[in-house]
Specification:
acyltransferase, transferase, 2 domains, 13 strands, 6-stranded mixed β-sheet, alpha+beta, Nuclear Transport Factor 2, Chain: A, GNAT family N-acetyltransferase
Length: 330
Amino acid sequence: MNPSARFNLRPLQASDSLAELTALLHRAYAPLGAAGMNFTAVHQTEAQTAERVRHGHCLVAERDGRLIGTVTVNGAFDPNIQAWARATPWFYRADVAHFHQFAVAPEVQGEGIGSALLAGAEAWARNHGHAALALDTAVPATALRQRYARAGFDVVDEVHWGGKTYRSVVMLKPLAFDGRGQALPVPSLTDAQHHAALVRCWWAHVQARDWPAARHLLADDAQLHWPASGEWLLDADAIVKVQAIYPEGWRITVLEVTPMCDGRVHSWVRVDQGETTFFAHTLWRLAGDADARPCIAGASETWATAEAPPAWRTAEALGAYRREPWPRGA
């Protein structure tokens, strides 16, 4: 118990009521909704609350057995699960945590509960080795933006989330040290983690068939090489068009995106189409500096079709050998 503020800050427990948590969010965000800003927390269902806390670390402030505040902090979002986050690479960075559904009950605002919740989110981020903590909020929410600025957050991006009545800013607070006291690098648009996040955005855009957004990530003169077939796509429009006109029925799953020491990014994805499965390994080249928007400058991509191994490869012949059931997943 915090004796000065008279509330208890703790992780959400299985015994806590998600209906009560959802009602708290509704009450806290009602003034923003009344001002025409349709934040998710204005109207989200109990099922949405459960989904949002399931993928993050939810903190609650409690007083006399009643929930009076909450925040949910996340590590990097997964483009396979939170595809909506593809509008900004900041939420796909492996080294940046971010918080959402931050709320304090209207009747106890001004008592330091919000500051304690933010400090708890920041501590979680540091303890998990993140270099910064991010958030997004509405451009018209001037008071919120000013509060976050006073807490050390600066605007690093602006986005328009699907279905929202407003544009949003993404704000970032660098964390000087991790949970072990080790100095952390300050995230930037030109570092390896941002480049990897751009590639995650690319695959999420392609899976969503969001071709304008995918095109926006490419330099105009970007080139894509398929060495196995000897083909070259010689500009950004051709790269996007080949994705858009490919016969439908496919689904992409991002398996891995890793920045490389030479500045490139490696990605590995699986594509399922009907009964056929493909895998693609791509080596991405990125461009851009402090004065220019980072973008994808080119890539070399190798595709393979999943198929059963030949009969001669067996444990009897090779010793230390195992094969998965075929067809895959059978």
